[in-house]
Amino acid sequence: MTWLKRIIVLLVVLGIAGGAAAYFVGGSSKVVHNYRTDTVQRGDVVATIGATGTLEPEQVIDIGAQVNGTIDSFGKDISGKPVDYNSVVAPGAVLAKIDDVTYAADVTEANAALEQAKAGVLKANADLATANAKLYQAQRDWERAEKIGTGDALAQTTYDNYRSTYEQAVASVGVANAAVEQAKATVDQSESALKRAQRNLDYCTISSPVGGTIIQRRVNIGQTVVSNLSASSLFLLAKDLKKMQIWVAVNEADIGDIKAGQPVSFTVDALKSAKFNGVVNKVRLDASMTSNVVTYTVEVNTDNSEGKLLPYLTANVQFEVSRREGVLTVPNAALRWTPSQDQVIPSARKEDEGTGFGPPGETSGEVKPATGPALDPNNRPGMLWVKDGDLLKPIHVRAGATDGVVTEVRGDDLKDGMEIVTGEIIGDNSSGSGGANPFLPQFKRRKH
Question: Is the pTM of this model over 0.70?
Answer without folding.
Answer: no
